[in-house]
Write a structure and sequence with these properties.
heterodimer, A: 101 residues, mainly alpha, Arc Repressor Mutant, subunit A, globular, B: 167 residues, alpha/beta, Hypothetical Protein Ychn, Chain: A, 5-stranded parallel β-sheet, 5 strands
Chain lengths: 101, 167
């Protein structure tokens, strides 16, 4: 499981340095490292973030995720405990989300 | 991770529109970083969680030394808005409307919605018992996001080991 993590590079904060080096297998491995087993609901959010992140060059914030996917704040925090926007950005191979809301 | 057990507690003592936001913004940022958040609303701060007050928070333009004409986009540098203008009826309403519009333009939610977001993200929120008694408020005067009304002593017990920020 962790072998795939050796094939790419992460920055000091644990974010993938090159978003193009991302793959679904890599996402599974990063998620496992964060203690998250990815379900369909997780993927819905990851795919939304990938799309938005690559489009704008910045990982979406919490509010952008809830507004964009229609998934509630409560559910988002239970799917990705302890800081959902940062966790999703990591798993989706994007940079650290910027912005306050 | 090292952040695992970090706890932050905010004491909100002000009911002005501009003073409502610091705890909401920092609390939201803390939750986004996996930090435990507790907010204690005391004195005027209780307005933020009071059903009748939360949507009517205001910003008074009187005796605010940061009020400059440049806030309205005018090229007037440090020229202040005279206090005498602030006392004209309707100026507080105008300043409040103006700030709300600015907040909205940044896609920052209004106070009520922000509190709901914090609640859904797991923040604990309490009202100050002494203030509630003093203002003669009842449980159904508050927004459902409030977890309860507690004493200052209870708050101290709940926030053991937390970093406390007074606003």
């Amino acid at each position: 499981m962790s072998a795939i993590l050796e094939t790419v590079t992460f920055n000091d904060e644990g974010f993938l340095t090159d978003p193009n080096a991302w793959s679904r297998e890599l996402a599974e491995a990063i998620a496992a490292q964060e203690g998250i087993e990815l379900t369909e609901k997780h993927w819905e959010i990851i795919e939304f973030c990938r799309q938005k992140g690559l489009e704008s060059g910045a990982a979406p914030t919490l509010r952008q995720i809830t507004k964009g996917t229609g998934i509630s704040t409560k559910e988002l925090f239970s799917l990705f405990p302890k800081g959902p926007a940062k966790k999703v950005a990591k798993i989706a191979g994007l940079g650290k989300p910027e912005g306050c809301v | 991770m090292s952040e695992e057990n970090r706890k932050i507690a905010f004491i909100c003592s002000k009911g002005d529109l501009d003073m409502a936001y610091p705890a909401l913004i920092m609390g939201w940022a803390a939750l986004g970083n996996g930090i435990d958040v507790t907010i204690f609303f005391t004195f005027w701060g209780l307005d933020l969680v009071t059903e009748k007050r939360v949507d009517k928070l205001e910003l008074a333009p009187v005796a605010n030394t940061s009020f400059k004409f440049s806030l309205m986009g005018l090229p007037t540098g440090n020229l202040g808005i005279p206090n005498i203008m602030g006392i004209i009826p309707g100026m507080t309403a105008f300043a409040s409307w103006f700030m709300k519009k600015k907040i909205e333009s940044l896609d920052v939610p209004p106070v009520r919605e922000y509190l709901e977001m914090l609640h859904d993200a797991g923040a604990h929120m309490y009202g100050c018992k002494m203030t509630v008694d003093m203002f003669g408020l009842k449980e159904d005067d508050f927004l459902p996001v409030l977890d309860g009304v507690v004493t200052a002593g209870d708050f101290m017990d709940m926030t053991e080991g937390a970093q406390i920020i007074f606003i």
